[in-house]
Amino acid sequence: MALSDEEIKKQAVDGLYWDTRVDAAKVSVQVENGRVILTGTVPGYNVRMRAAEDAWNVDGVVWVENRILVRPPPAVPIASDEDIKESVVRALAEDLETADIRVLVNDATVVLEGSVDEYWKKSEAEWIACRARGVCDIENKLAVAPTMSIMDRAIADDVRAANERNRNVNIGDVDITVTDGVVTLSGSVPNRAALRAAVNAAEFTRGVVDVVDELAIEAPGERVEAVC
């Protein structure tokens, strides 16, 4: 039985209060037709992302709009752009090959430029950067330049096989097309877990240079576009 908007809201709020990484008292939740809108303030960009993940984890959610703003606590010294840059560069050096990644910071907004050789590294670089103290926003401009050329058909076969191995995905729900290394996923899936599994299957496949997510999460009686 599908959850009502009030039930979704209650579970989303309960999830935020359960998550010790998030100060739920400073986050507001609104729900309409399964669409969740988050507002409020949090002390860091990583907390903002965690709050959205908590909302997505609720059954019946078809879309999350994250309007939460990052506001460092007054008692905490504000990190300078140079401090943020040093933290991000150091973290990238520890966790990821960074020879071709350039980090720029302007008014606490981190800009990642350059290239990586696997698509998943583009997403991973953003996750690494978001954990640096003082980051308020991230612009990920990294390009993906694989070290070897793989035919589109082979990429599509690998993505399809990865989806078939995942119990969260019904491969019949997902249409996969590949053009010049760009994977486009379309169709309708039942929940967030299936959507993320399908997207991950593309992101982790060798030779992929970009992933276009056109999947929808199907709600009872309607089908809406899913936004990650």
Overall structural class, as computed from helix and strand content, comes to alpha/beta
Which geometry do the CA atoms define? flat
Portion in strands: 25-35%
- Quaternary state reads single chain
CATH architecture of the largest domain: 2-Layer Sandwich
Number of helices: 6
Radius of gyration: 19 Å
What's the helical proportion of residues?
A: 25-40%
Low-confidence stretches: 221-228
Biggest β-sheet strands, sense, barrel: 4 strands, mixed
Q: What is the typical, i.e. mean, pLDDT?
A: 91
The H/E string reads HEEHEEHEEHEEHEEHEE
- CATH hierarchy, class of the largest domain: Alpha Beta
Number of strands: 12
What's the number of structural domains?
3
The CATH topology label of the largest domain is Histidine-containing Protein, Chain: A
End-to-end span in angstroms? 24 Å
